[in-house]
Amino acid sequence: MAVGDVVLGANQYGKAEVRLVRVTRDTPVHEIEDLTVTTQLRGDFAACHTTGDNAHVVATDTQKNTVYAFAKRFGVGSPERFLLRLGRHFVDGFDQVTGGRLAADVHAWDRIAVDGEPHDHAFVRTGRETRRAVVQLDGDDVHVISGFTGATVLKSTGSEFWGFPRDAHTTLAETKDRVLATSVTAWWRWADADVDFEVRYPVVRDLLLSTFAQVHSLALQHTIFAMGRAVLEACDDVAEVRLSCPNKHHFLVDLEPFGLENPNEVFYAADRPYGLIEAAVHREGDPPVPHVWASVPGFV
């Protein structure tokens, strides 16, 4: 059986997980921005792979240095705008670069309180969720995705799970009142890049979390669809929402051997195994853009 020539397929390269801390100290009250940035470029890089010719290769070290230089020259601001600026620099500045994927995680810090007042230049790392951003460029075609991961949320009531099929292997009891807990990974694709990300990001984030709190849940699937729908109904500038939510199970502890009742008060929090619930939510007639999500972590 004849075998055809071996050819290079899709490829990209760059500098992963560049640790960037930018301190703004133009007043006595300092500001701190802490990001992990990844840059990956696409374009005319075949010769490097097939013959070892590096003439078109923008070194990953150069990409790293550009991250730091741009943080100094332009500041950081929203991670989305920072990545867009970096991406346009590489696409516009190098003929062989036709596009790329740029991503950032934002690590939040709060000011340490001293005598009830926030300190000017001392900070403590928070336990909040991690804000994330991904920018995909293909020539003039730009897609911006925002999101967060690690938002651990819990409802002590207002959640049910019943009516599921039963067979010889089903032991789970139906319930009309249970603890619902998850760690939300959420992504949303903006309709275009002309967005005030610093203003709009907290709006979407708060809508997702407030919907989790308010909806009377009949399943975690029911909840995450409601979360995505709430965003799309309220935000014309969001085109699509994707959610990945592990079900952090809380099992009622049997206290009868100790002569005690347990009316949904004492639970065993199991870390694994867990149900993993994922869904994409978009408007009818406005289909998702699958290739944009191919390299977004946490959801495929």
Question: Could you characterize the architecture of this molecule?
Answer:
The strands form three sheets. An eight-stranded antiparallel beta sheet has the order 1-2-3-6-7-8-9-12, with helices on one face. Strands 4-5 form a two-stranded antiparallel ribbon. It has a two-stranded antiparallel sheet with strand order 10-11. The mean pLDDT is about 95. A hairpin with a 2-residue loop joins strand 4 and strand 5. It is about 25% helix and about 35% strand. With about 300 residues, the chain is an alpha+beta fold. It has helices at about 45-50, 60-75, 80-95, 195-215, 220-235, 290-295; strands spanning about 15-25, 30-45, 95-105, 110-115, 115-125, 130-140, 140-155, 180-190, 240-245, 250, 265-270, 275-280. It is globular and about 75 Å long.
Question: Which terms summarize this structure?
Answer:
300 residues; alpha+beta; eight-stranded antiparallel beta sheet; two-stranded antiparallel sheet; 6 helices; 12 strands
**Number of DSSP strands?**
12
* Series of secondary-structure elements, N-terminal to C-terminal: EEHHHEEEEEEHHEEEEH
The coarse overall form would be globular
Give the structural class.
Answer: alpha+beta
Low-confidence stretches: none
Overall pLDDT confidence: 94
